[in-house]
Amino acid sequence: MPKRSDDGLAGLLDAVEAAPPVAAVDVFERRLGEQVGAERVSFFLTDFAGQALVRLTHPGAGGPGTERAEQVSLDDETLPYGRAVIEQRLRVLPAPGDGRPAGAVRVLAPVTARGDAIGLLELLLPQHPGEDALALVAAAAHALAYVVTTERRHTDLYEWSRRGDPVSLAGEIQRQLLPNAFTCEAGQFTLAAWLEPASTVGGDTFDYALDADRLYVSMTDAMGHDTAAALLATLAVGSLRNGRRAGHDLGRMAGAANRALVEHHDGLGFVTGLLLSVDLVTGGVDAVDAGHPPPLLVRDGEVRAVPLEPDLPMGVLAGTGYRVQRFRLRPGDRLVLLTDGMVERSARRVDLPGLLVRHRDTHPRQLMRVLTAAVQEAAGGEPLADDATALCLDWAGPGDDRRAEAGASVTGGP
């Protein structure tokens, strides 16, 4: 039997594997603290709304909701926590006073996997750590991203900790339709998406999948609100994923989803959709527009809609055919997909092209916060009347080389 390691990253992972899923992070924090001599180690998850970091906390004795998790706002990007998440780099800062030694420091390490910002690791140390200790902290934070990704399959702890507000039934269904990671960095592209509000309504979805030579992206918007819309969305997304995994082209995928919706809802519910398949070698894009707002292309400092001809939404009419249309991305292009909640009602007041031009060099992950914040501001603090969903795809061009440190690309964006 191989000998267990008590030191370094191997020791951390051995300890996690021996612990029950609900205690994995507690064990990870304790063991890392022992290895680097930390006074305290804390793991903060990003919350559902993307507005705060939430300290991973066990529910109170009365169950979830009986104890409020500690939160750190990300609204002020000049504060250390916000900067660490945005910049995706380890930061060493003076520790808060509280009677600690003059040389005490606080280390903030992003917990990230392939660009998906899962959270932040905070360590309080009595003195500035050496380079070896900092390297271990950075590697441990990266490993923790994979620990969380694995362990949350077995417990609701991570979901409970991220919920600032009660989640409606429609919101619960909708969350299960979304990909596990809202950001993906690869050699050819960087992708990020977001949906607002995170806890209510239901109907909007986005999805993506990567294979050896193609990236598949979809965005759908089901008619109506609440649970009925979430159930329509479930049928549409399930059908599209089934077709994608069977190797069907986009036109056939949309046709199958249309048949499923007509069969089960008798023409009384429909779903708009935008389906894309990107060739990772050429940048060529196959597209199906099922009655959905066209994607916006940011190229050479200008924003324009991609001229796609829309077909009927899925679920309207049996036998509807869906055309596969084509366009090509150039290195440096940015493609933005939206649902109508980003462009209708109060959101009309948002200068979307202006925002996209001003933030053309902003990482897609951060651009999602910029866009959703603008829509929320336009609503004047009132709850959104419809889901507002956005997805950003930055196209870097062919090649599979990606320079990354601790789970995040060294240079994100085009």
Automatic annotation (TrEMBL):
It comes from the Bacteria. InterPro entries: Bact_Sigma-Reg, PPM-type-like_dom_sf, PPM-type_phosphatase-like_dom. The keyword Cell wall biogenesis/degradation does not apply. It holds the Pfam family SpoIIE. Residues 186-395 form the PPM-type phosphatase domain. Transmembrane segments: none annotated. GO terms for molecular function: phosphatase activity. Keywords: Hydrolase. Signal peptide: none annotated. Gene3D superfamilies: PPM-type phosphatase domain. This is Serine phosphatase RsbU (Regulator of sigma subunit).
